[in-house]
Amino acid sequence: MQALISISRFENMLDCLATVGLCVFGVQSRLYAFFISKEMSKLKKVMSMVLSIVMLITMLSVGFSAYADAPKTFYVYSAVGDYEENVFEDVDAAYWEEQYGIANYFDSKDGTLYIYGKNKIPNHYLSPNIYYARDYGEAWKMHYKLNEEHIEFMRKNVKSIVICEGITGIGVAAFANIFDNVESVYIPSTVNTIDYEAFARMKKLNSLHIAEGVKHINVPAFCDCDSLTEVTLPKSLKTIDISQDQEVQNLRIHWYDIYDGETSPFDYCDNLKKIVCLSDNLAFGYIAVSCPSLETIVLASHDLGEVVYRCPALKDIYFLTKNNNGAGAQYIVPLIESAKLHPFELDKSITEFDYWYGDYQNATIHCYRESQAHQIFSHITNNIQFLDAAKVTGLKVDKAYVNSVKLSWKKCKSGATAYEVQRYMNQARVWKTVAVTDSNTCTVKNLCSCDTYKFRVRTVNKTDYTDEKGEYCKAIKAITKTAPVTVTATAKSGKIKIHYDKSYNATEYEIYIKSGKNGKYKKLATTKKLNYTTKKMKKGTYYIKVRARKKLSKGKYNYSAYSKEVKVKL
């Protein structure tokens, strides 16, 4: 991204040589970035002098009227009040560049406004309104106004804003109330702080990239950005301050290692539906207050602290840690008017607990069975879903087939969104997953006939935020059926010659014969061979069938099904 910005800045530099809006300071600083080697230091000086001369000639020949048609740099005229009540009337763009080292450049090809420099973008940098700022308890007023033609141009033509590497911060309302068509904002890693309402009321903003390195955000910086639906905040973020004036519709915020203080991060966010807080080190007070549309809260912090207050639409609350320390109070209050006090005793490991308000029958608590969250909420509601994975019981073989077995087990009432079935691989001496199913039955296929297998099953309990796996149940044995054989029989010299194919793993074969269609089968012989010849027999029609078997322990056998009977005539 940095390389792309640098290339674009260089190309834009060449386009704006005939434009009065770019001051010599800004142009020189941007051109120098591409001539940094010591060997080209002389060339840099020459180019700088040539560029300065060209700019001066252009200013004299073209005049200021050129900017009304196609401005490259937006000038700001302002009255700045400082802490000592000194006022500088009608300060132009040179003031910002001299005082702060900040300049901007507009690329008309793609509608991108680049802000570059080595300092913090000052308060109200490109904001046309009057604001009040407070410092050390005293109010002081700042009046800002832009060139009217530039205001109209910015409203219509700026599509994206790129803050370039080197900018260290973004001041209060720096880009507020003017960029009606901006759809994307890029904030680099060199920015440390984004202040209050820095990007307020960008109605079409739908893409916000905040690079790793940003440490502090005053989230009202994005208030009234109604097209912004989801923001990922960087892991580098350490503090986040959100005032009661924030109104970001439908915004879902994912945040990580954010360390907050006493205040609630989300106050009076009327359309906020979901809060996902994945930091396991976050310590907070209330996390949400008076958010009437809030339905889901996901918390990974070990310190539960206070949770929510006056959020009547809550449906799901996730506590993702297995061992919350339980310190602090637990408040979940749908409406203060319906608050009730529920006294109860807690585990000795909890050093502090204030009280519980609320009658939260509509909310489902998602937590771990052994967590302090479960202990706390079990006194209040029965509507608890455990994040732990349950343990499988009752595993058995329903039926064995020649090349498959059907397993079943008791269905878990909770703690199981799926079941993982494993088979022990005898040669490799490892367990292998052969199926994952949401049913409490499973048919394992592609097995060998007349063979012994071991199986085990465990639960999988998966949510949008957790993926827990239970312990495996005790393994059981399953023996597949012996495969049937195919028989042929021929008559010769008053004898019957019987042949059959080998059944895998079978050790013996039982041969049965009957005389006539309505006769009864009798065992003719048991043999380990794959053929058998009878003694001389009377003339007539005979029927023959064979089954294979394998001897098991304690005199038991694993029998195949009978073969199809064959007819032979003597």
Task: Give an account of the 3D structure.
The chain is mainly β and 570 residues long. It has seven helices and 41 strands. It has a seven-stranded parallel beta sheet with strand order 14-16-18-20-22-24-25. A hairpin with a 4-residue loop joins β26 and β27. α2 (24-32) runs antiparallel to α3. It is elongated and about 125 Å long. It starts with a helix and ends with a strand.
Ordered list of secondary-structure elements with their pairings:
Blueprint: H1 2-15, H2 24-32, H3 41-62, H4 66-69, E1 76-81, E2 87-91, H5 93-100, E3 102-107, E4 112-117, E5 120-121, E6 131-135, E7 138-146, H6 148-157, E8 160-163, E9 169-170, E10 184-187, E11 193-194, E12 207-210, E13 216-218, E14 230-232, E15 239-241, E16 252-255, E17 266-267, E18 274-277, E19 288-289, E20 296-299, E21 308-309, E22 316-319, E23 332-333, E24 364-367, H7 372-377, E25 384-386, E26 396-400, E27 405-408, E28 418-425, E29 430-437, E30 441-444, E31 452-462, E32 467-469, E33 476-479, E34 487-492, E35 495-500, E36 508-515, E37 522-527, E38 531-533, E39 541-551, E40 557-559, E41 566-569
Helix pairs in contact: 2-3
Number of strands: 41
Poorly predicted runs are: 1-40, 58-72, 75-91, 130-145, 242-265, 326-359
Question: How much helical structure, as a percent, in the residues?
Answer: 10-25%
Largest sheet: 7 strands, parallel
Instruction: Quote the distance from N terminus to C terminus.
Output: 92 Å
| Major sheet strand order | 14-16-18-20-22-24-25
Strand content: 25-35%
The global form is elongated
- Average per-residue pLDDT, rounded, comes to 72
Q: Find the structural class using helix and strand composition.
A: mainly beta
Measured on Cα atoms, how large is the radius of gyration? 40 Å
The total of helices stands at 7
